[in-house]
């Protein structure tokens, strides 16, 4: 049996993303303790100033020093949680802001005569700006390459799915026009042979069995072809195919399908099977119920909803619904299933409506 060594966070990253929760909590507690000590010290110095007769409020400079230490501590505390360029960006911006705050505070505490901090602030901003520009220049090529790669993957996946859908449609037509047609013709010939063998019961029984087997093969081929895609889907579109599904269903089905354009075949096929599987499940587990199918385009997505008023309690992890989820998610779609006991079932699919 293989064992995997536990991951150890690199030194110096105790509060990083991979650090254990106790270490992150310790780092946060250290900053809180620092702030508490600073506040206590500031209050104590103010009391000392008041007890010694007041005068010029010298504790303000000590307050300033305390604030600087807390600011630097906070920058380092949150910077170590980052990595690579993100760490550098956080450090530069955090330290630049801290330095700018220090300069402005010194100017205010020294009497605010003439805004001399303008020049050092401009210098700090220029250095930070140049750094961020250089960093962004190095980051952009990687982002462009990643975006191009994602675009290529999306196009190749869409192409592969479209080719697969076209091939499945071709197989369905071949089954319907080839093997299925031949089996139908064979069944008819066997029926005629059985009629002519009425006076020879043994031979007629063999022919009858052969005709029954041919009928069973035809039924299996039809089920197989229906599992690929019906011809009406390719010929007349999704609305007509779903309407045909509703008419053939064992339970009453109302269909509300309004589409201004046809989706690409692979999306159309996925939507069809969402409806087909949902109606099959409703007829199997919700006898006496009724179902409603709604298909519409919304915000660039093809939305398919199938609801029934059956007993509910459908298992989203069932093989049929799992297969639907995989089919929908392969197209960057989303499948939602809500089936509270006693409240019916809702199956909702959202598919990219590309035409």
Automatic annotation (TrEMBL):
Keywords in alphabetical order: ATP-binding, Kinase, Membrane, Nucleotide-binding, Phosphoprotein, Transferase, Transmembrane, Transmembrane helix, Two-component regulatory system
One GO cellular component, as annotated: membrane
Gene3D superfamilies linked: 1.20.5.1930, Histidine kinase-like ATPase, C-terminal domain
Lineage: Bacteria, Bacillati, Actinomycetota, Thermoleophilia, Solirubrobacterales
GO terms of molecular function: ATP binding; phosphorelay sensor kinase activity; protein dimerization activity
SUPFAM superfamilies: ATPase domain of HSP90 chaperone/DNA topoisomerase II/histidine kinase
Enzyme Commission number: 2.7.13.3
Pfam family, one: HATPase_c
Catalytic activity: ATP + protein L-histidine = ADP + protein N-phospho-L-histidine
Keyword Nucleotide-binding part of the UniProt annotation: yes
Bias type Low complexity, positions: 1-22
Stretches for region Disordered: 1-23
Transmembrane segments: 31-52, 58-80, 87-109, 115-134
Record-given protein name: histidine kinase
Domain Histidine kinase/HSP90-like ATPase: 266-355
